[in-house]
Amino acid sequence: MQGRDEGMEGERGKTGRQTDGQTDRQAGRQTVSREGAVAGEDKARKTQADKDRGGRANKHKPWIETEYQGIVMENDNTVLLNPPLFALDKDAPLHYAGEICGFRVHNGPSGSGTVQFEAVVLDRSTGEGLVRSKEPLDCENQREHSFTIQAYDCGEGPDGANSKKSHKATVHVRVNDVNEFSPVFVERRYEASVPEGRLFDRIVRVEALDADCSPQYSQICFYDIITPNVPFAIDNDGNIKNTEPLDSKHQRVHTFWVTAFDCGKNRAQADAQVVVTVKPSCKPGWMGWTKRVEYTPGSGSIPLFPGLHLETCEETVWNIQATVELQTGHIGKGCDRDSYSDRSVRRLCGAVRGEVDLLPPPSPAANWTSALPTLPSSDSSLVFSFNGSNHVAVVPDPVVSALSGDHFTLQLWMRRGGGNIQPATAPTRGNRKEEETIVCSTVRNDDSFSHYSLSVHGCRLSLFYWPDVAAARPVKFLWKLEQVCDSEWHHLSLSVQFPSVTLYVDGVTFDPALIHDNGAIPNPAPRQRMFIGACWEPDEKQKEMQNNTISEVKYVGSYHGLLSGVTVRPGSVEPHSVVECLYACREGLDFGDLETLGSGMKVHVNPSQSVLVLEGDDIESFNRAVQQVTYRNSLRFATPGVRPLKLTTSLRCFNEESCLSLKQLEGYLVVLQPDAPQISLSGVGPHLARPAPEFEGPRGVSLFPELRIVCSLSHAVNTAAQGMEGGALMSDAVAHTLDGCEVQPLGEELNPEREELLVDMDVVRERGLEIINTTAYIAITGAESISVYEDVLRSVRYRLAKGSARFERRFRLSCSEMNGRYTSNELTLEVNFLHSLDNLYHPSHLLASQQQFLHPSHHAGELSGHTLPNPHRNSVVPGAATVIIMVCVGFLVVMVILGVFRIRSIHRRGEGARGGSKDGSGQWDDSALTIIVNPMETYESRMGISADMEGEGEEEEVAESPEDASDDQRIIVKEGRDGAARRY
């Protein structure tokens, strides 16, 4: 007991000594605290102020990759991601701020991302995560899933306050298939009938389908006939043929069973039954006719009737004639013309420039066609309708004045009649139809006048030409043509080099009959004029036109039909090669190999290649010839659609009374959609920054100095022969012809008093292109190569009037080919005007400039997408030596200023300590001095645009790489307690 009391007393003594010591230390701390109370309160208030200004512990957002690719097995839920899911935070290894607390899954394009998938954190310190589905996935239901994911850190404390989120990353998940379904036949029973005594390549085709989603398990690898000892065989595509001639007397009906296997060796759930009936009688006619024929653009020539043959049932014939008709008139005027307009086709064919369009699109400059009704055309050219009465186009005198001379080429597209044209209402003389005038013109030739008119009458085309209305005799050139009265589109080219006249109809030359008209023909009035669709009444009592009105002019010979592309080119006549190119048919009927044509066989193809006629006397040779009739299409981008086919057969026998009569066969050719070209515009950054005085110069600033245009074709390539599964997409760069580009200012239109877009007109005129320059857009049109359009677009400049510079202006560039059938990507350019160079001399900007010149490779990553001034071309950035000198001087100035401030701070602190001053508001507190240099500053920071204005609640956030931690810096100087922070 005594020992315990002594121990307790010792403990109490020890405790008393500790208490005394603690009291002494607390008293000492209280003394120190009282001495620096003011300084501590100031420091606490400053710390609180810093926190209020945003200086929290959690400074950075988490970072994840921008895109992930994932794979998950069907009926499973764990997703394997590539790359693995890791979230990084620059605040690591700080507790909470540098840890990842969770991931959040957002909806993808399908709208089901948050319902089917979730993401969990495996390790908060490393940021490792795992993506899994909430329930097993079904490949047949949906094979691919897309959603976005976001990482969140733990904030500034355990309660997750001020937690920051990363940008949204896209996750693509593909569900791998499992072979869980077996093939199923489309039909349980297949029936076919064939005549006896012959072998067929295909009697019937069976088809099975598999519900698996992957090509490996959904494709049918092979079929099999499970009934033994049947005279039939089946290939891997399900085509059944007979292996021996069938005899209806021996067995009239053949019944057997077939099965199918997918590529995973799963057998069909139920076998299919095939019933083949053998027909005993012979029916004459064409065997193997396929009503539908498909053509893939770029296939060259394909046979139309590869399995077609004529069955005469042993009837003796001595002459066979078959006519194959391909209808392409509904696609365009004549042949498919690559969907280019007439003007573009002329340029592509190398026609001599200088033609005058007599029926131009209505516009303020060409208003003489505004009253004519128009019809739509597949090749985007205008088709004008003439009703035979009051539809007349009067060409103005200034246009007619440029067409003088007796050497000219007149070209036009013509179609007599037309479904949308009302019958003519003009009176006729008795029962005889009047001539219908297409073009009627009187032009001045120096001191004389010449007159000509092109007319149609029935199935005749005539050119009435009067070289001198005052002296010479008129001459009429006459052609009798079926093309004039067949109500189809035809291309006419009339080359007049008097007294020689050459007519091309659809590219074929026709010789005229020359007639000297000595009848009583009143002389045309010696007045320059030109009418389209009619001619004026040659009556001397008729009143002359007054004030350019045509109400007092009587018309005769009004035209009834359609016209398009009516042009006249004065001077030398058009070469024959150009005329042939203008009407060159690039699709039509053809014959495979004339050398294999049997004896006695004849082949004839019309000029438009729409009708092919075969004639022969031997059935076997005729069948071989029919199988070599091909469809040819050399267009790069064939117009898709249906082309009706007809086969008409005429037989002549020794016994005409019992000769066979075959009905006309009708089918159609389907041209599939061609591979669309990708027109890519690149080489122009989204931003163009230049000092404002450069835009106010006489030449302005080039908008697209480094523009690149690339056209490519993406097409499917079969890689099975190379041991690869499925197919692949390959892209081939090809030589294309563009037909238009447009530069458009975004937002408000250009103000012609302050700004304008300039184009090098010499380049435009040299290439023969057309340009429309308005305040809303600049349109450059004409069929030309990519290099020509690059040169023209690179010459586009933007110029401002003095003092008109704003802060920015945006433009959009796009191009097209095939009259807008294929368009490019839209290239948007933002033009920024640098109004002052003073901030280039600030120390922080000098340091940034130094980094720009000393480390150009490191700086290129930051400025990708921006077009800054080129130092070799009117640059606003000083030379390298000047920049280095300015950097040194600026840095020295900064260091001197900082030194002076620090000396003053020390001096004032000493005075405050001696004088016991408690007011620290006027002192320089170097504890808050922070100097952070940003060597990777973009031009936005030079313009005073802060990069930290991004709100935490924004929907779209920019991906931030962890390697760029040192780049988010600036020079910040904070002065005193009440001094506002200065950002340089």
TrEMBL record:
Gene Ontology biological process terms, A to Z: homophilic cell adhesion via plasma membrane adhesion molecules; positive regulation of synapse assembly; positive regulation of synaptic transmission
Keyword Secreted among UniProt keywords: no
Positions with biased composition (Acidic residues): 949-966
One Pfam entry name: CLSTN_C
Record's compositionally biased regions (Basic and acidic residues): 1-14, 40-55, 967-984
Disordered: region residues: 1-60, 946-984
One annotated GO molecular function: calcium ion binding
InterPro entries the record matches: Cadherin-like_dom, Cadherin-like_sf, CLSTN_C, ConA-like_dom_sf
SUPFAM superfamilies per record: Cadherin-like, Concanavalin A-like lectins/glucanases
Localization: Endoplasmic reticulum membrane; Golgi apparatus membrane; Postsynaptic cell membrane
Family, as annotated: Belongs to the calsyntenin family.
PANTHER family: CALSYNTENIN (PTHR14139), CALSYNTENIN-3 (PTHR14139:SF5)
Protein name: Calsyntenin-3
Originating species: Takifugu flavidus
